[in-house]
Amino acid sequence: MELVRGILPFSAFLCTSAFLRFHPIFALLSCHAGGMIPVPLMLLAAPAPVPEAQKIEALIQAVAALQGAVFIRNGTEHTPREAADHLRLKWKNAGKRVKTAPDFIQYCATGSSMSGRPYEIRLKDGRTVPARDWLWTELKRMEAKP
Length: 146
What we know:
Layout: H1 10-14, H2 17-22, E1 26-30, E2 36-40, H3 41-44, H4 52-64, E3 70-73, E4 76-78, H5 80-94, H6 101-108, E5 120-122, E6 128-130, H7 131-144
Antiparallel strand pairs: 1-2, 3-4, 3-5, 5-6
């Protein structure tokens, strides 16, 4: 490596341990020419998973978007929009107890905390399914998307 007026070329500086000490977010990868190339560590990491809050909000949005469905809570019928608003309120009130989408399904969307009765969804085709089962299926579908 050639010094120009006593200064290392910038690319050489990037590969020095001094640079890496001051910039711990870089890793060195060897290149085909036998040298080392600094690469930001975030480029080497796997894609970040969808944050749990986004998954929970997506589940609530999926309930709100159920065309022709009826949400049944404590024997009373509600629109999908009303159901979504209710689930969002329960999520807010659950506080730190709900950390993941499965927690949300278990603690907020399975049934009434007042009566203990399970929530149900009457789908457009007339079938009535437990809200818990529908939400688990929806969560698995969401997580399977690339």
